[in-house]
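Hi R.,

Here are the chain sequences for the assembly we discussed:
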Amino acid sequence: MTQQGVRWSADQVLALAPDAASRKAGSKLAAAGPWSEAGSSDEGTVWGLCKGSGSKPYQTVVDIADAAGPAYKCTCPSRKFPCKHALGLLLLWAGEDGAVPTGKAPDWAEEWLAGRRKRAQEKRAAGGAGSPSGGADPEAARRRAERRAERVGAGATELERRLTDLLRGGLASAEQAGYGLWEETAARMVDAQAPGLAARVRELGAIPGSGPGWPVRLLEECALLHLLDQGWLRRDGLPEGLAATVRSRVGLPVSADGPPVRDRWLVLAQYDTADAKLTTRRIWLHGAESDRTCLLLSYGAAGRAPELALPVGLALEAEVSAYPGSGQPRVALGEQFAPPAPAAIRPPGVTTSRAAARYGEALRDDPWLDAVPMTLDRVIPTPDGESWQLADADEDAALPLTPSARSRPGLWRLVALSGGAPVKVFGECGHRGFTPLTAWPEGPGQAVPLC
Amino acid sequence: MNRTSAPSETSASGVWEDLVTTALLGTDRRPAASAGGSAGAGPAREAPVALLDAAAVETVRRRAGLRPARAARRPDRAPADPRPALPAAAGRRLALLLADRPGTGGGRRGTSPDLMELLPQWLAAANAHGFAAPPESLPALLDAARGRTDLRPAALAFAGPRALWLARLNPDWRFALRAAPGGGATLPDPDDAGEVERLWQEGLFAERVALLTAIRTHRPAAARELLAGTWATERAEDRLMFLDSLRTGLGIEDEPFLELTLADRSRNVRATAAELLSALPDSALAARMAVRAGACVALDRTRDAPTIVVEAPLECDTRMERDGVAAKPPAGRGERSWWLGQLVEAAPLGTWPGRLGGRTPQDIVALPVADDWQAELHAAWCRAAVRQRDPVWARALLGAPSAPEAGGPGAVSLAERAKLLGTLCAAERAEWVAGFIATHGLSEAFQLLGVCAVPWAAPLGRAVVDALNIARDAGSYPWSFSGVMGLAERCLDPVEAGRLDGLLAVPDEREDASPGAGGYWAEAFQRLMTTLRLRAVMADELDAARHGRAPAATAAGPGG
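And here is the predicted structure of the full complex:
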């Protein structure tokens, strides 16, 4: 592969930006003007000196070959991560022929790289040696786990009582009780060390204000919460896979202990959701050989972009290990064997009827699933009154878009890309409808991110 | 609900609705009828628990059984765009330019280019190459054009037929349908007489204006006839807009119709008709105005030097009014000089050499004018030269750029000079402005630079850079010249970037200079240089296909 082949697109680089302001500031530094001694190596390192407001230029270096997404180092005082200089440098590298020539890294860049490699090696060595002896005192760990299970059990029992009280008095009263009741219950579940239950309870609080049809949605969510409570209280009688799913849904810590699966993983989509405390980044991967679609999660403090960043359209040769639980798509990224590189492969897709059936089948393993990852083949974005749907090009069947997907700018990119012609769309398919995340045109062309 | 009925016989939705009703009212008020039965776990459980059990089963069942909906009517396919695809590097550039939305940053500009300001010329260049816009960029392009009306024509031309298809689906982008030549595909073919007539008779005002404009561009006479057919029944405001659309393709064949409209009930319509007629030097109105103006301006040969004497009209008669002369002057102006100005403005310039002793325009402008009439007379000639697009007279009235009065308050204002320059060819314009800047500096040049062709011709570019250099040496701050600097970033030819090399360093501070000015100037010149380089790269990226260089993305292929 040529050096050009590994280059990213501007969109892919801009996807790394922590916020819109950084995107703008980085774009402005994407011209050769402020840069000097910029260069790149075939191992996937880009460096350069950027003239700032001070007398000494900033030293910027980016390692794009890292398994956990690009790593950055810049001598500027910015607390943004990556800073505008790193973004500008990558844009320059992505955009212009010859602006960032291949060469040997200067000493200051080499020093940082060497330090990183050394740390990575030590970590690998420590990981290899450390895991068997990980539980220093297995007896103490077991006791801790037991104590926590008891507290969660007490929480689940309390939650059951609250749910039965609610249904005894009727959901109509929930509308008057308002948010406070649920906030208080959620806090009790946090105390019970069951964050999964707490999150679900908090969502219940928002349902009465969510517009027409709320009693149906509230009953559904109460029933599923009840199901989860019961699952936890009777977990000993469940099959191992389902019990693991219940544990992770309740919010017990789990670790990715599945066997490593090596594949060429295509990055299907990356998007962030944020609440008051946490930014959660979801990255969907598709294995070219295994035909598995799996999910990487990465977290950042509120207002900060999570560190792991894998731009859509790249593929990486890497190992992933699954988290426990039946029907769980989540994996952890393991060793990476080559830097992420643009790839023209596309995931195979299905019809809308098949997609709906697949969601139904997935509920067998995990009845709490809101949506499953899905690639639709040959669908046409179609206006349907106030709403939109993805209509099968060849059958009289269509999946409606979720309400949140309707109001996103990505919808219009999807419609524009299609132009009334069938497209391939990857997204999340569930009981609320379909959320498109990435699309490919009918003819040749790159993946277009929609989120 | 029947307790004993088998689940398979009960309609599934009936069970669910029953559960919802019970849940809503509460099991205390409405004991769950079906819940206990369907789960069949005995009477030991409390009613709410039984309800939750049944609801959980139903919820998962309902979700698992979801089927796709019926497809709505699929949209028609967007018309094909035959233009070649944008080179990959240029596509990335476009994404960058569009990402730079106003309001996403702020603060001091520093040394980096203002990308949004480069979008207009990127669009112009892409349109000149005839590339098609990448479909996924259309929403951002339409949003950019929505926010900036000056971008619309180029952005919509580049966005192509698919953007109009898209705009029909999103009310936010309706402007694209209005702005598009012919309002999108809704306008009939100009040759389809029946459809044209139908839309003209029944269409909304905006549609009719679009129709008239479209037809006027292709077949001026047909448009005029269409308008003449319904003229008497149109409303006054509409008549004004319709008449204005005749500006395109104006010719002497329009004279009979325009003469008729001189008698219009609306004063604005009359004035517009007169203005259009006076732009036709062979029209009868122009001849009438020539006679009237000629009667007011004469050459007095009895003095030592030949001098122009002016005898302004004593009255504004009804025939003058009919020919578009406004009788009532604006506040603060004398009636007679007001009338004179209008007569001279509307008279064909070609009559003056004959009237004033066979002199050339240049000699006529040089003649002294008696009794302080010079300003009034020259200003009227300026307006006439602009209206009649007469470069010979424009040249004469502009005078030499190095003349002292060119920079100061002379007979001809800067705004008028800018308009006069507009009648000259691009090279001559640039040369005149370059000469002006060399003599008078940059402080008055902004308006004049605005009418020069982009990129600036070499002499003009050199004059601007030299003048900026002089301004810096004079010790002022660069933001006094931010207007010209911004223009230079957008308009200077990138090949001139080399001339800036000496200006990028921060000079030692001199005692008489404004504090810190040197650093700000270096920053401003760096930004200018960066922007010029970026523009050169942008042009190269769009040229990639023409020069046969493979765009970067096709070289990548299915990597791995």
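The beta strands of chain B are 297-300, 307-310. The CA atoms of residues 284 and 521 of chain B lie 58 Å apart.

Let me know if anything looks off.

Best,
T.
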